[in-house]
User: What shape does this take?
Amino acid sequence: MEEKFIKAFKEALELEDRTIDLTDTFRDYEEWDSLGHLSLIAILDEEFGVVIEQAEFNKLNTVGELMVEVKKRMA
Assistant: This one.
């Protein structure tokens, strides 16, 4: 799951050449903007069948927190 999530995350934000750590604060990435946000929301729905409401998404800070939330919603 972690590998698939990281791959989808990198694809959404066009970070193919970057190493992603679960402790990274994704909003601090230079590539993070409104388009990246929408791309990430779309890929989470497409790849994992998960929709995270905006209020809940705003509470998430790290890549790991986002992955845990996706896992919870898949169960």
The radius of gyration is 11 Å. The first helix runs from residue 2 to 13. DSSP finds four helices and no strands in the chain. The mean pLDDT is 95.
